[in-house]
Model the fold of this input.
Amino acid sequence: MTSRRQFIAAGAAGLALGAAARAARSDAQTYPYSELEQRIARKDFRGMTKDVLPTPAMVVDIDLFEKNLKTMADSAKASPIYLRPHVKVHKSVDIAKRQQALGAIGVTTATIAESELMSDAGIKGVLWTKQPASVNNLMRAIALSKRDPTFMFVIDDPRVADEVEQAAGAAKVKCRVAVAVYAGLTRQGIANGQPALELAQKIHAAKNIQFEGFMAYSGGASHTKTFTARRQKSAEDLSGVQETVALAKKAGLPIGIVTGGSTGTYNIDHELGLTELECGSYVFMDTKYRHVGGKGNDDVYTDFDNSMSVLVTVDSKQHPQQVTIDYGNKAMIQTTDEVKGMPWLQVDRQGAEYGILRWKDGGNEIKVGDRVEIYCTNLDMSTNCYDRYYIAKGDQIVDVWPIMGRAGAAQR
Ligand SMILES: Cc1ncc(COP(=O)(O)O)c(C=O)c1O
Done:
């Protein structure tokens, strides 16, 4: 214990930590570690600073997170365009509820399991962005439509439309469905123009399905570098969709929604006929998005801040110009991750439980026992590996939010 204390003191001096961090380190020596889980369960965060957390741990900077949420909500209101944020990025009911409190009309989901989790937690207006292609998914989509009349999903195939119509009829429920149309990504979406119109008409005519409109996710545009190029790509990707919407209107179809969009194109999509945005990453941001460039056509996308990081510990330092951290493949380490406040460090893989930080050029020393925060490359992949967010105001933990539906049955 004594040597650990001496070590911490030496490390603190070497790192030139601020007064708050030094105070946090001395608290860490007396924190009742055996009570950590009980304290979290009863939301007793006294003395719970970042220093006492087990690592690797996901930490959310509450101030930056709230700023991101407000920036997006304000922008949507001003555009105007509705917001139905994608939850696959955060998988958190706590966050979905905060998004709704700021005006979101629902949430967007990637899987039926995510849809069930959100809806069962009381979130209204869930839009599932895949079609129920298996019997398992079909039966669950029908059951969820029955439990929650605000639930919607998409279809891009007439055969699935027939199956939904039949299953919904048998269950005596009317399902709410949008037609998924091609918007530059080859993963889904029926061809625009006549094929999309015919599917929309088929769904509109179905007795047990309510036609809601169209989904057009232009995923290729979202990470296109520079604002000008992104706007151009969005316009190209959504031109066919605009044609489909015009055809559907001409044919007298009632179009409730045209949904799509992303964090990269949130301030472009309203110009291109979308009525609502499915943005997800803006809540936390990741290093991939940080480099798409902002409206000023600069290199860094500063519209939203990196509000979430993975807190890791330096476990060993036996070789020059590198240290080992407790953040490895199981924790979704990527070589394109970035270290908060230390751009001179390069993140590298080392194994399932290990990662390396290498010195690219100069920069401060770090020592065994020090903690650094790492910005993830791809939020969806990373949040899937952790079970909770530690919510931090500065160094102090102020709340813990569970991450839902990450593995096993909950994920499927
Ligand atoms: C269907 C769908 N909509 C919207 C998004 C936008 O998400 P983001 O804002 O994270 O780019 C995604 C992301 O993959 C998606 O799959």
Q: What stands out?
A: Residues 156 and 180 are 5 Å apart (CA to CA).
